[in-house]
Design brief:
About 40% of the residues are buried. Helix content is about 80%, strand content about 0%. The protein is mainly α.
Length: about 210
């Protein structure tokens, strides 16, 4: 499966496997595989708008369940194999030694928030759970932030796509759009803050974790 699916492919997948397709693809993406979970969720919500055999509420539920279960699998993979796994393959995803060190530092400071907001960022959606496990994020914190982020993500993108397809004809659609815009604005601010302070944070990470440039 490629990184993107068009609506025709999504329709065929949903017609064949229904809610299980949403659960499985979102779950595997959350566990660390580069699959188009968010694309499938949005496509499934649009499909449900025009095909009454799928209910959007169950699509959202399947996506949330897949996100939560997949992230828990990713967490335990990271917990068991994470450091070696990330050192070996992290560079392929833009996670070189300095960024892995920075990731460790950020998880020590803001681990729960990274898990929560990472659900809304493509790269982090794939890697956040493994990173959380590799960096030994407290299990209770991980599970709480993972569940909250997974449910909110599924609700915003699932219901948002469903009602946006109808041209904002209902309050829920407008509310979903407002929530999505607010989240995007917040993520844009966090990303800008990160880029501005990346070098300083990396220096802080090396000092705090007792690392030196090799």
């Amino acid at each position: 499966m490629g990184h993107l699916l068009d609506q025709t492919e999504i329709n065929a997948l949903l017609a064949a496997f229904g809610y299980w397709a949403v659960f499985a693809v979102v779950g595997m993406e959350s566990a660390g595989l580069p699959l188009p979970g968010e694309t499938l969720l949005i496509g499934a919500a649009i499909y449900a708008r025009f095909n009454p055999q799928l209910g959007v509420g169950t699509v959202v539920l399947a996506a949330a369940a897949g996100a939560i279960v997949g992230d828990n699998v990713g967490y335990w993979i990271g917990r068991r194999y994470g450091t070696a796994l990330l050192e070996r393959f992290g560079a392929r995803f833009g996670l070189g030694p300095d960024r892995l060190l920075l990731g460790q530092y950020l998880f020590l400071r803001w681990g729960g928030w990274i898990v929560f907001f990472g659900r809304f960022v493509t790269l982090l959606r794939v890697a956040a759970a493994v990173l959380a496990g590799a960096n030994r994020l407290d299990l209770k914190t991980f599970m709480l932030c993972n569940a909250a982020g997974g449910v909110l993500w599924a609700v915003v993108f699932g219901y948002g796509a469903y009602y946006l397809t109808a041209g904002f004809e209902k309050l829920q659609g407008r509310l979903g759009s407002i929530l999505a815009l607010a989240l995007l604005a917040g993520l844009a601010w966090l990303w800008r803050h990160y880029k501005i302070h990346e070098e300083r944070l990396t220096r802080e990470a090396k000092q705090a974790l007792g690392k030196t440039r090799g």
